Amino acid sequence: MNSLTVLKFGSSVLPDEESLGVAVKEIQHWVHRGHRVVAVVSALGGTTDELLDRARRYGGARGVPDEASTAALLATGELTTVALLGLALTHARTPAGVLDSAAIGLSTVGPLLDARASDLDRAAVHKALASRPVLVIPGFLGRDELARTTLLGRGGSDLTALFLAGELHADQCVLVKDVDGLYDSDPAVSSRAKRYLRANYEDVLRLAEGIVQHKAVRYARERRVQFTVAAAGTYDGTLIWGGDSLLAENAQLRDGVHEVKPNKERTRT
Predict the structure, then answer these.
(1) pLDDT band for position 2 (50/70/90)?
(2) What is the pLDDT of residues 121-167, one digit of tens each?
(3) CB 3.0–4.6 Å: which of 50, 69, 167, 227 could bond 173 by disulfide?
(4) What sections of the chain are H helices per DSSP?
(5) Which position has the higher pLDDT, 172 or 268?
(6) Which of 134, 15, 25, 6 is nearest to 81 (CA)?
(7) How many of the other CB atoms lie within 10 Å of CB of 156?
(8) Taking a C-beta distance cutoff of 8 angstroms, is the pair 14, 178 a contact?
(9) Distance CA 183, CA 196 (A)
(10) Which conformational region is residue 140 in: left (phi greater than 0), alpha (psi within -120 to 50 degrees), or beta?
(11) DSSP state at residue 195
(12) What is d(CA 251, CA 4) in angstroms, rounded to the nearest whole number?
């Protein structure tokens, strides 16, 4: 079990506790094929907004709550999902460890509510994976030099997953979404939306932010980390990389099937 896969599950995939089975099946798919898995999870759907509203009640006349306390409160959403997914995996006979951002040394710099990931205790991650094939950790969260909880900005679980993939030299990183790939426009709005088989970082950054956090894409571009955007249960979504973009409708047919996407290079820093 040498291959390492980083999977990210956001709130669109995990809207409630009943949906944890989706993540369990996705993780089991990779484990059964000999992969170790680092699963990065967001808070369940709506939780972050609910917690943010609660924090704002303490904003006083200025309407701005204390940032350190706000970060600590919002972190409880991700930590709850981590614990629940760990329990669900164990119940499904898939041994899994759970750690928070402090335990894996995920350090950050910058503003408390919009920080940048800067360092990772790789040894702690590998040690956790030595005894169990799965490690579940919270996305969106880090710790600063004062050991305060920090947030990586809205959609920051994408950045957590890509940062881990780069730092751990993962074989692949998959952002599991509620769509089967990346489109040139919102398929929920336009019937003419076209899906990418693969997309260059720059083309992704030109699209409206929503499916993938742009901050995370800029990190991936800088560190040359390739990743895939795919729906749960599908394993051929959109490859995001430094090469040319290719829309599905423009793919050259070979023997009656779409052109095969290039082999993914090992992610690297």
Answers:
(1) confident
(2) 999 999 999 999 999 999 999 999 999 999 999 999 999 999 999 99
(3) 227
(4) 20-31, 47-56, 67-91, 122-131, 156-167, 201-206, 214-223
(5) 172
(6) 15
(7) 27
(8) no
(9) 6
(10) left
(11) B
(12) 29
Q: Where are the domains of the chain?
A: 3-258
Rg over alpha carbons for the chain, rounded to the nearest Å, is: 18
Which neighbouring-strand residues pair with 108?
117
List the one residue out of 68, 85, 157, 90 whose CA is nearest residue 117: 157
pLDDT digits (tens, 9 = 90+) for 98-112: 999 999 999 999 999
Question: Rounded to whole angstroms, how far apart are CA atoms 118 and 204?
Answer: 23
User: Is 3-258 assigned to CATH 1.50.10.20?
Assistant: no
Q: Are 170 and 267 in contact (CB under 8 A)?
A: yes
Question: What pTM, to 2 d.p., does this model score?
Answer: 0.91
> Which tens digit of pLDDT belongs to each residue from 59-87?
876 777 999 999 999 999 999 999 999 99
The two most distant CA atoms of the chain are separated, in Å, by: 67
